[in-house]
């Protein structure tokens, strides 16, 4: 299992590096998929796969530069952050199916915003300690690093958890709607991202549609596609990111990715919880109806007042004198 996690972590890291940016002299990625892979692997397989995360992190770093003493600190922080996310989520009673709003909020604030403070602080702090980054440049680089790690958790981990869960029933009518949604997404999202008029807001109706009809699976796929497409356009300085400085590109990209991830994740969690509640109420009503039918089957049917049935003796055989 650990070896499989290592392969997935390394592959996700290489994909993430394709959209890297340089902020204040530090190489960062607006979306760092390995954090999502690590958190999902820990939630599905347990804490025993942490060596695979550490080895994957080391291989990603080794593919960029020659390993040195500082590599140990980076590997440790990249391993400890997902482990802390896993422990915090388990302590909060997180469910992998994310069928409750509290599960979505836990993943956002504990697994994303909270735990990823460790990797961002250790990574940027190490650059400052080495002297490769000035103290005045700490916060911009730290924010970019932290957001990249957090986006990896919010965009990648939910999708992997959905794929690792049991497959649900999918009717033919849903397939047709899913195909239409996918086609609309493939047409509308590039138009919104590539347009120099900055029409990124057109993405959000698609996210809402996907969340309402297909919950986490649909909304997270749309959000991930939109974020990846937007990230590559930002690194190429095209479309909505034309003629912007590095800081402006990173700020705009982070705002969009964060908004898309939170909209898709939290709205899908709300819809999933409501549907689960509705199913529970429907089952309870059906069970109650069955109980009433069984009770009614053992008693005489009530008749109109004054009839013989209405004057029948009560249970026990006693009748008022």
TrEMBL record:
Determine the domain of life of the protein's source: Bacteria
So where does this one cross the membrane? Answer: 21-50, 70-89, 101-123, 143-166, 178-208, 214-232
Q: Name one Pfam family in it.
A: MASE1
Q: Which InterPro entries match?
A: MASE1
Q: Where is this region: Disordered?
A: 295-321
Give the principal location in a single coarse category. membrane
Q: Which UniProt keywords apply?
A: Cell membrane, Membrane, Transmembrane, Transmembrane helix
Compartments (UniProt record): Cell membrane
Give all residue intervals belonging to the MASE1 domain: 1-275
Q: What is the protein name given in its UniProt record?
A: MASE1 domain-containing protein
Q: Membrane topology per the record?
A: Multi-pass membrane protein
């Amino acid at each position: 299992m650990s070896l499989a996690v290592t392969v997935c972590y390394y592959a996700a890291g290489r994909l993430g590096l394709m959209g890297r940016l340089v902020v204040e002299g530090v190489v960062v990625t607006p979306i760092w998929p390995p954090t999502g892979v690590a958190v999902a692997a820990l939630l599905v397989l347990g804490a025993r796969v942490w060596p695979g995360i550490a080895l994957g992190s080391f291989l990603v770093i080794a593919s960029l530069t020659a390993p040195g003493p500082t590599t140990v600190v980076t590997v440790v922080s990249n391993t400890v952050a997902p482990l802390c996310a896993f422990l915090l989520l388990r302590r909060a009673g997180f469910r992998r199916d994310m069928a409750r709003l509290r599960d979505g909020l836990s993943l956002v604030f504990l697994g994303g915003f909270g735990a990823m403070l460790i990797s961002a602080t250790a990574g940027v702090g190490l650059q400052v300690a080495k002297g490769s980054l000035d103290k005045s440049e700490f916060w911009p680089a730290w924010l970019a690093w932290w957001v990249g790690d957090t986006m990896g958790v919010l965009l990648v981990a939910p999708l992997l958890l959905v794929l690792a869960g049991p497959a649900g029933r999918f009717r033919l009518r849903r397939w047709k709607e899913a195909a239409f949604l996918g086609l609309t997404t493939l047409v509308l999202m590039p138009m919104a991202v590539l347009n120099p008029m900055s029409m990124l807001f057109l993405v959000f109706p698609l996210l809402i549609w996907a969340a309402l009809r297909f919950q986490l699976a649909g909304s997270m796929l749309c959000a991930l596609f939109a974020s990846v497409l937007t990230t590559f356009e930002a690194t190429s300085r095209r479309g909505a990111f034309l003629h912007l400085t590095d800081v402006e590109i990173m700020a705009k990209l982070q705002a969009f990715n964060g908004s898309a991830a939170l909209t898709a994740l939290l709205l899908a969690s709300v819809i999933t919880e409501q549907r689960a509640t509705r199913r529970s109420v429907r089952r309870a009503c059906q069970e109650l109806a069955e109980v009433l039918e069984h009770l009614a089957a053992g008693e005489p049917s009530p008749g109109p007042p004054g009839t013989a049935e209405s004057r029948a003796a009560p249970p026990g055989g006693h009748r008022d004198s």
